[in-house]
């Protein structure tokens, strides 16, 4: 393999960042588990194709976010002492692994492939999926892309919560079963709060860079100290929504997610105590991701018990 191909391949995988696909894998598995619990079967072929489609959207979203944040200067404003695994996007353009044009081409190709998969599922499996998929795809693309630039205008947090919560859970369920009800969408709400919290705490390392680049997310709007209060509120909302699921669906297994509560309390305390100490603060970032995984895992189990 030539040096140029190695650069492109390395840049692509750095941009794709498969380790963060857990964000979409969890709600897809919850939706699949609910479908199996209600019907006794899951079509693995369609399930696998849907996984591929969502992962392609993830890559496309990363690519769009990467070149937009570079062009606005946000990624370039992240100083070397603030660079860490939770800061500055995927760093492919900043690191010289991909050009702006190459990143834009990756965005176009992956999103086009995801659209083709969505249309195929809608035509040959379940028409309703098209509209759910289009809603998710539009939110992913315009999360960063003009004219909406949702994450620059205080709507990014809502877009992420809606997409990685009710939309993906509901979309997977309706694709596998052909039907959808409000209780299935409700099941995605705890995940919506938790993935929003992952985004929220990951905005802290980029706070100064976002301010300088006029990326007006809600953390920039309300400030770091007030942001910790919202961080705690998002956790509280996630656990409260698990209780709502127990009441509505009469399934006590949703409470398994409370096993992560001590870790959540610890992460809030860590973040609050280290607002000016980034090396210690990012322990809260890591804990928030772990909590999402723990609660997601317990929700998959609980979904099978419905």
Automatic annotation (TrEMBL):
Family annotation (Gene3D superfamilies): UbiA prenyltransferase
GO molecular function, one term: prenyltransferase activity
Entry GO terms, CC: membrane
Bilayer topology annotation: Multi-pass membrane protein
Any single GO BP term: vitamin K biosynthetic process
Superkingdom of the organism of origin: Bacteria
InterPro entries in the record: UbiA_prenyltransferase, UbiA_sf, UBIAD1
Pfam families: UbiA (PF01040)
Transmembrane annotation, as ranges: 20-37, 43-60, 100-123, 129-146, 158-176, 182-205, 226-247, 253-272, 284-305
Pathway this chain belongs to: Quinol/quinone metabolism; menaquinone biosynthesis
Localization in the cell: Membrane
Keyword terms: Membrane, Menaquinone biosynthesis, Transferase, Transmembrane, Transmembrane helix
Regions annotated as coiled coil: none
Protein name according to UniProt: Prenyltransferase
Species assigned in the record: Paenibacillus agaridevorans
């Amino acid at each position: 393999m030539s040096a140029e191909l190695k650069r492109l391949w390395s840049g692509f995988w750095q941009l794709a960042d498969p380790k963060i696909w857990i964000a979409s894998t969890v709600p897809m598995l919850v939706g699949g588990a609910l479908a199996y619990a209600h019907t006794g079967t899951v079509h693995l072929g369609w399930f696998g194709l849907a996984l591929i489609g969502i992962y392609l959207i993830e890559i496309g979203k990363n690519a769009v976010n990467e070149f937009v944040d570079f062009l606005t200067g946000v990624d370039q404003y992240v100083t070397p002492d603030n660079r860490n695994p939770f800061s500055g996007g995927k760093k492919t353009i900043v690191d010289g692994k991909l050009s702006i044009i190459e990143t834009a081409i990756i965005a176009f190709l992956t999103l086009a492939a995801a659209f083709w998969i969505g249309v195929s599922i809608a035509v040959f499996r379940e028409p309703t999926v098209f509209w759910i998929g289009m809603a998710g795809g539009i939110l992913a693309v315009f999360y960063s892309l003009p004219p909406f630039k949702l994450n620059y205008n205080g709507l990014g947090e809502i877009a992420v919560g809606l997409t990685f919560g009710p939309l993906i859970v509901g979309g997977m369920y309706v694709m596998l079963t052909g039907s959808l009800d409000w209780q299935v969408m409700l099941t995605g709400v705890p995940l919506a709060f938790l993935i929003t919290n992952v985004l929220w705490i990951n905005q802290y390392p980029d706070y100064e860079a976002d301010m300088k680049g006029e990326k007006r997310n809600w953390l920039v709007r309300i400030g770091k100290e007030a942001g910790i209060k919202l961080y705690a509120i998002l956790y509280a909302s996630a656990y409260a929504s698990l209780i709502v699921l127990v009441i509505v669906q009469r399934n006590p297994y949703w409470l398994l997610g409370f096993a992560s509560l001590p870790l959540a309390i610890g992460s809030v305390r860590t973040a609050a105590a280290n607002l000016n100490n980034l090396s210690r603060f990012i322990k809260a970032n890591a804990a928030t991701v772990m909590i999402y995984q723990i609660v997601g895992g317990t929700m998959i189990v609980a979904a099978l018990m419905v």
